[in-house]
Amino acid sequence: MPYLLDVSHLMRAARRCMRRAGAPGSDGVSWATYRNGLRGRLAELSERIRCGDWHPAPIRPVEIVSYTGKVFTAAIPTVEDRIVHRAMSTALDPILDQVLADWVSAYRPGRNRITAQRHADAHRRAGNRWAADVDVAGASTGGRVDQLVDWLAEHVTDGSFLSLFGRALSGLPSPLVPGTGLWPAVFHLRLAQVDRQLDELRIVRFADNYLALAPDADAAESAYDRIAVALRSIDLSPHPRKSAIRPPQLTNPEDLFLIDG
């Protein structure tokens, strides 16, 4: 809770939010307006959080077309709610970094597509050249607030923080809607429930793409089934078009983890 109650922490969260341009939320307040008297605004926000009077404002939905042509709805919170989301995320980042397996990359400091490729290449060099390539369908959508709060409660014991986390998620159209500062933490918290069931595999996850390396086709099939079962435990499944067993000639590390690949 100090990340949400200490004005200096809220100030850091606000400055991180202001590093990138952002459109106003549903209240029409821009960063140019909100930064006037910023410290006083943050002191008032801190007091509302302390007293339990902070509630997320309605979000402004916008349609975005990705560079793959996919159209999806993103949420634009108010600038003040963005500060709260960022402060929560800052508090959670070091906790989730300890929770996530070493073989998980993306949306983590120092962990990107290059680190995922290096992990995969190490498995290939050890003789595991077949791959169970599983792209998760709908990994960035849906989710249940109560389920996410329960999962976080395994690692966070502060009841006030957990309550505020649930309140922030309940103010969104769905917990994993793109566009909020909480999205990376919620995304990883959800898939960590799958990761913990797969540690025995020679596996790499980059964002929502699981790649299990195996010495032969049968072992790759078995790994694919293991991943599918683990995904079903949290009501997810492999993407039917993007997921496949890949033979050695199709597991060149530089060709792995491509967007829509």
From TrEMBL:
This is Reverse transcriptase domain-containing protein. Residues 75-245 form the Reverse transcriptase domain. It comes from the Bacteria. InterPro entries: GrpII_Intron_Splice-Mob/Def (IPR051083), RT_dom (IPR000477). It comes from Actinocatenispora comari. Pfam families: RVT_1.
